[in-house]
Queue: 2 jobs
Job 1
Amino acid sequence: MFKITFLGTGTSQGIPVIGSDHPVSFSKDFRDKRLRSSIMIEYKNFNFVIDCGPDFRQQMLRTNCKKLDAIIFTHEHADHTTGIDDVRPFFFRQGEIPIYLHERVLKSLHERFAYIFDPKQKYPGAPDFEVNLISKENDFQLLDLKVTPVESDHLGIPVLGFRIGNFAYLTDVKTISELELQKLKNLDSLVINALRYESHPSHLNVQEALEIVDTIKPKNTFFTHISHIMGFHEEVCDKLPDSVSLAYDGLVLEIN
């Protein structure tokens, strides 16, 4: 069994949006307050996160996480990577931290965080990482958990989602091939992005996400990477099928 905590369920701007007059930005429902999308998985005293965005520090403080054993990155966009410097408190206590990422994502981090990754520019106190390259072609292991990468397209940018047992986490999906969908059969729980009701060039909307759900038929589905334009959490959930709901920050799932 492993435990999943939703650290953030918002889109790249988070909710509330800076300067927004949209009613959702003023909601009193805690489920309408969304940090940038990420999850933490706890398994046998082994803690790892999928993505490490700009709210990482706040997310770790909120969950009282004291140990971080690995980071998996879905892709290189800022809302999924720019918390990497805030890994330092874990590094100071534990030493180098394993990261799992595509070669393209590593190249992006090298360019944007040269003071961490370039030996010639390494800054004292910057964290060290044990780099593990991953791709859609090969599974990898975390302890005795098999992790299966699942590739989707995000307006021309390949993004990796991950299946672990009968659970899968996919974010920033716009399209996904039939071959990759085959990796998602017989799921108990699926987490997938659904930005809003209206169409979007690089993200699934609600209808498109529901079509994927209807294709692979997981027992339960949780939408993430949600925009304030989607509407109020409670009202949106009332419109969704019984087996589908919006995730929210702090939601915990226990997966067998």
Job 2
Amino acid sequence: MTKILKIFIISLLLLELPAWGQGYTISPVNADAVLNAETIRSNVEHLCAKELGGRATGTDGGRKTAAWLEGNFRVLGLQPLGGAWLHGFNTSDGMARNVIGLIPGSASPARYVILMAHYDNLGILNGTFYPGADSNASGVSALLQLAEMVTRMNTCHKIYRNGLIVVALDAKEKNQGGAEELWRLISQRKLLDPVSGSPVTPDQISLVVNLDQIGGTSSPLTEGNPRFLMMLSDESTGRRNSLDNANKDRGFGLELAYDYYGSKDFTRLFFRRICDQRVFLDHGIPAVMFTSGITLNNNKSTDTPDSLDYDVLKDRIRLIFRYLDKVL
């Protein structure tokens, strides 16, 4: 096979041509080019560094984390809403900061999907350092990778109808304070779209996707199988078929669950009460939460970067991207 013919065949696979003369669909395989386990781990290790002190809300480590995230949003080309990436608000422990950026969509009037993950953790309590690798450096690292993957599709001329609002939330450990502040900005029409100049309104939010603890493999759905992922959602609004189809399309073969280890009570707890998507569900906004579940390391000093499985986390991010590719 000649070199030119090989290039031609690879191009067809990447573009997923349905038939001659009928246009083409840009494959999400293009986005995989920016995804690697080393980058995921590097981001987790940075967030867990002692210099950031466990990223507690209102601390110098929390401020430094927000500044680092702002720098990442700039490099990725995310657009600031209302002229700023950093959106500060007060808590009982001092100033907190949400970091917010936009990848615009094509719909008119605009529609949005919110992709969010909290970056705060317990910090240092009674002299003990809590690095918070799975909770929630794993989710934040995934957030950055997913934003880069969507941006990559844009550079390949993929046109998404929904804009993607990317949010690194502060103050989750303070009664979902960051999510509450994000909702306040939206509900009070104070979050301005940089493209149109118009406020983002609640009726424009198609879906909220929350990433919280998605790097662990020590509490599998089925014993001995680390390749799993849970998506908590309402059956009628979670677009579960999109995740199922994506899982089959490329042969990911991740074991999927739409409840929390088969428990209605724990599903209700993690989906409806103690995680950030709760704020939006309370106001009638459809939401989903991706997680790999709680482990024996969560909220302990042993929640370190070495406790995560980066190859599995990489495949989870790839699958979540394919879900986003379908819902955007």
